[in-house]
Amino acid sequence: MENTLWDAVIIGGGAAGLSAGVVLARARFATLVVDAGEPRNGPAGHMHGYLTRDGMAPKEFLATGRDEFTRYGGTVERATVAAARRDPDGTFEIRLGDDRVLRARSVLVATGLTDELPDIPGLAERWASEVHHCPHCHGYEVRGRAVVVIGSAHLAALMRRHSPSVTFCPNGTEVGPTERHRLTAYGVRVVDARVTRVSDGLTLELDDGGTLTCDAIFVQSRPVPHDAVLNALGARRDPGSGLVDVDRQGATDVPGLWAAGNVVNPRAQVVAAAGAGGTAAIAMSSWLLERELAGGAAR
User: Fold this and answer.
1) What is the tens place of the pLDDT at every residue in 213-242?
2) DSSP per-residue string spanning 3-48
3) What are phi and psi of 56, to 5 degrees?
4) Is 12 within 8 Å of 111 (Cβ atoms)?
5) Which of 102, 112, 185, 296 has CA 20 to 30 A from 52's CA?
6) Rounded Cα gap, residues 149 and 275, in angstroms
7) pLDDT digits over 243-289, tens only?
């Protein structure tokens, strides 16, 4: 691998990265996917909102994607990326965690993000099984059951679509009188006491000594993009969102560098991340082809 000048190195083997890999491999570009094996939805037992793949286990989805990618000649390497730089000639050097160095004409970063949960003991242990953050991914599965929502009035209202028993704990978030009235009129119970712990049986302990018991918990998580490679390569950030700025095709302001999926769009579901990866790959294919035409050499 170290002696190869890859047409494209894709960092991240989730929905965005593998979808991009399939497009590029089918276009007969030498494509390598470097994957650390820690997808955002890895802990979940199933995924939803992906037409024809609804309810599929994330692990099965990714295994199928890797098989498709390698069937078209792509290469997958299980590794982490320690450093990256762009050389004066425009090629990229990617240093892996084991000090191997890869060279590439173009790079797609599809490294996803981590959902940072509120600092409440007992939440993390139940993440993706009894504790969720996305009503579009997991709301239907708890329809009609008792739900507690922590930290997001909007999320509480969305969950009310699925259950007649929704309790909202602001836990420090501001809830004005108008919003409170709208929620209660919609059938959401508001409890102002803070949640201090989640214990067995999905019992939420409150700072006023009370407790709440439910069947599922939804929380407002904080997305933390895995954008270290994009930072190392000098990609510009959007001053409003704080995320790395990409155009509609996933291109950054660094020539030859693209990004797709949750690393630049935290709200993207699996199907949207896959679509973004495919879109970026088509743009990369055109970009690579243009450079070959300019150089007058067929590959």
Assistant:
1) 999 999 999 999 999 999 999 999 999 999
2) T-EEEEEEE--SHHHHHHHHHHHHTT--EEEEE-S--TTTT-S---
3) -70, 145
4) yes
5) 112
6) 30
7) 999 999 999 999 999 999 999 999 999 999 999 999 999 999 999 99
Q: In degrees rounded to 5, what are phi and psi of residue 167? A: -115, 130
SS3 content of the chain, % helix, strand, coil (to 5): 30, 25, 45
Q: In whole angstroms, give the CA distance from residue 139 to residue 190.
A: 19
Closest listed residue to residue 79, CA positions, set 120, 138, 42, 37? 37
Alpha helices in the chain (DSSP H): 15-26, 58-71, 135-138, 153-160, 177-185, 228-232, 270-295
What's the rounded Cα separation, in Å, for the pair 276 and 13? 14
CA distance 83 to 89: 18
C-beta neighbour count of 210 within 10 angstroms: 10
Other beta carbons less than 10 A from residue 71's beta carbon: 11
Position 252: which residue type? Answer: T
